[in-house]
Amino acid sequence: MEDNETVNDELTIDSSRRCILTGDKDSRDCLIRLALAPDGSVHPDVRARAPGRGAWISVDRTTLDQAIAKGKLKAALQRAFKTSQIVILPDLSTRITEALQQQFLNQLGIEARAGRLLTGSERIADSCRAGHIALLLHASDAGEDGQGKLDYAFRVGGKNKGTGQAVISEKGLILPVDRMILSLALGRGNVVHIALTAPTTADRIKHSLMRWCRFIGWNWDTDACVEKTQDQRLSLEKCEGFGLADER
Length: 248
Prior knowledge:
The protein has helices spanning about 5-10, 60-70, 70-80, 90-115, 120-130, 145-155, 180-185, 200-215, 230-240, and strands spanning about 5, 15-20, 25, 30-35, 40-45, 55, 85-90, 115-120, 135-140, 175, 195, 220, 225. It is of the alpha+beta class. It folds into 2 domains: about 5-90, YlxR-like (Hypothetical Cytosolic Protein, Chain: A, 2-Layer Sandwich); about 95-225, CATH 3.30.1330.30. It starts with a strand and ends in an 8-residue tail after the last helix.
């Protein structure tokens, strides 16, 4: 039942799921769930909470678009849902991208309201040097000088002395959105840098960011869309060879 499970089925001890395109298994938190609507249309369900049947994918946007164009996604979904009445929306990849982005921004908003998120370069720098920051984030249009200073302060902080837990990363991560989007999401003016203080929450937010970046092909170290990696090429090759080429 892995390829076609209800939300209740998915609340099991084994959290791994199989990608219907590559056949690879991974944690459900790393994959993206597609939900089948009553009219046969397929929609992204990035929070894995939509009722009814769902199927999972692990590929990036480029690979997904190719699978859609070649009919491989439709064939895989027909097999997973055991029906030929499948409608793949032309903007499915865009909807997934927007849903992943919105989920991440919503998480930041929750942390801001809870008082576990800091903005403002000076305030962040002081907290970084004191070892009170678990995760540091930069807008895509952050200046190199300001970014470098905060990264240095973050390294100086070393470990989160308040909890004794290691920081989530060794430097700040560059987001796939600019300061305008971050400011709107948080309801604050000119948000260029963001710092998270709670290690557990920071880990969850980084995981959400990782899934988003992985899907759109964003390298948070270089603030650029990356060339197709070896892993992504292997995903495409597996998609080609997973018994879907002759299905329509």
